[in-house]
């Protein structure tokens, strides 16, 4: 059974969440250009190049969806910290192991409930 998190552990994990949040927001700005429409001008972009550009666009859109999901998970974790509910499993109410939270600070389920 995991022990309750210490104040130092919570502060460390809070900083990790904020760092991840900042990184995701920075990547959002960098990836915006890849999600735009693919040019239809066949003279400037050949058929295979256009298909490659469309594939790049789809991958960028999928990555953007993952970023939105990850940012939402981080926001929820920060809210749980504020409310004093961080580190406790949302399903069974048991403490979430610190090592699990080090790997995924936004985790809201203990290992037992996650499977």
Structural account:
By secondary structure, the chain is mainly alpha-helical. It has one domain (7-114): Up-down Bundle (Four Helix Bundle (Hemerythrin (Met), subunit A)). It is 62% helix and 0% strand. The chain has 4 helices and no strands. The protein has helices spanning 7-31, 47-82, 98-103, 111-114. Helix 1 (7-31) runs antiparallel to helix 2 (47-82). The longest helix has 36 residues, at 47-82. The chain is elongated, with a radius of gyration of 20 Å. It starts with 6 loop residues before the first helix and ends with a helix. The model has no long low-confidence stretch (mean pLDDT 87).
The CATH topology is given as Four Helix Bundle (Hemerythrin (Met), subunit A)
First-last Cα distance: 16 Å
Contiguous helical run count: 4
Structural class of the helix and strand makeup? mainly alpha
CA gyration radius, whole angstroms: 20 Å
- What's the total count of β strands? 0
Per DSSP, what share of the residues sits in E-state strands of 2 or more residues?
under 5%
**CATH homologous superfamily title:** DksA, coiled-coil domain
What's the helix and strand layout?
Elements: H1 7-31, H2 47-82, H3 98-103, H4 111-114
Helix pairs in contact: 1-2
Features:
0% strand; 115 residues; 4 helices; Four Helix Bundle (Hemerythrin (Met), subunit A)
Write a brief structural summary.
The chain is mainly α and 115 residues long. 62% of the residues lie in helices and 0% in strands. It has a single domain (7-114), classed as Four Helix Bundle (Hemerythrin (Met), subunit A) (Up-down Bundle), CATH 1.20.120.910.
């Amino acid at each position: 059974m995991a022990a309750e998190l210490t104040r130092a552990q919570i502060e460390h994990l809070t900083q990790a969440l904020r760092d991840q949040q900042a990184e995701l927001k920075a990547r959002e700005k960098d990836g915006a250009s890849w999600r735009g429409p693919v040019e239809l001008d066949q003279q400037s972009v050949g058929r295979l190049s256009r298909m490659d550009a469309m594939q790049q666009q789809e991958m960028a859109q999928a990555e953007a969806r993952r970023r939105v999901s990850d940012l939402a998970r981080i926001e929820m974790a920060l809210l749980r910290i504020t409310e004093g509910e961080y580190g406790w499993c949302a399903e069974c109410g048991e403490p979430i192991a610190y090592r699990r939270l080090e790997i995924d600070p936004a985790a809201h389920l203990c290992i037992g409930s996650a499977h």
